[in-house]
Amino acid sequence: MLASSVPREVVDAAVAASGRGAKRSGGKLPPHVIVYYAMALALFADEDYEAVMAELSETLASWGCWDQAWVMPTSGGITQARVRLGSEPLARIFDEVAVPVADQLTRGAWLGPWRLMAIDGVEWDLPDTPENVAEFGYVGSGATRSAFPKARVVAISECASHAVVAAAIGGMHIGEPTLARRLWDRLEPGWLLTADREFYGFTHWNAARATGAELLWRVSARVSLPVLHTWPDGSYASVLVNRRKADTEQRAALVAAAGRGEDLDPDRAVRVRVVEYTVPDRPGNGRGETFTLITTILDPARAPAGQLARAYHQRWEHETGNAQLKTHLRGPGRILRSHKPDTVRQEIYGYLLTHYAISALICRAATAADIDPDRVKFQRTVRIVRRRVTDSAAFPP
User: Fold this and answer.
1) Which of 142, 194, 217, 339 has the most CB atoms in a 10 Å sphere around its CB?
2) pTM score, two decimals?
3) If pLDDT is split at 50, 70 and 90, which confidence band does 4 have?
């Protein structure tokens, strides 16, 4: 499963490009082995270093593709091999292999011609070492400070498959929108990217829009959205103004120009379409939450307001993917293993690659069976994969 999503030739190319190739031949733990080992650490999060290596080496030996004379290294030797490899090869591998996996027949993957995608962040608890604290930091301070330092990961995922296709890793001193800047160039035409309100900013919107991807983002009530004209589906045309480049009088002039249909300088103002609706809290309690969405899809005929509202709530599939990573792979309440920042990043990329491989497997199976990938339980799939690794009779030679 791991090799099908992360082929050996991609691993070798990434190792060579990173300058992390083996200094000598015949070592117990060459770089390509440690790449797959980093992925296996995510698959067997409850096992110690030597037990995970045994899962791999003994199974491969039973298939006749591992040297029977090989001797298990110590956990210290494995740690040293991880440090030698570093995180850069796994980052390169992830950038190379992590692509959307749903095809045209995958249920729930599309809104018309657009592939549904989402961006959001997640935090990972780390060992409380001076190096991790200095690099990543805590959440809060004083009595409210988190028990462990944390790494922040902002990622773009495919809603239907939950496969993560782009990620940026940073410390808690870096906000999610700042990390997201590293990902905008990964967007592609034909995607419809959903995002929650903390990601909105005029420059962020413009940078993401310039990639050719369509956007569907929630915004807060603080964002000014003048009504230029309305459409029968209830949505309305508006304009976003870059407040850093226009004073009050200039903003009014830009809004008026947009209303007259004049061309706008995209560095100062851009047209959007707005969809507003209320989601009730509980039947009969009289409360609800108002959602305000802005989109680059300006023509209601291409995507009516109701379809966009339903599509936005597919963003929660990203939260499901986060739960798969942190609960079903890592385990609830567990911290990562790595005591140094570079191996922290390596470990996170190992989790992302393993989650990607499992998500791709689920998506292919669901598409072949003509069911929504959500119908295939991630936790059950992980159990099956773990069981097959330790049961050599489950595989042909």
Assistant:
1) 194
2) 0.93
3) confident
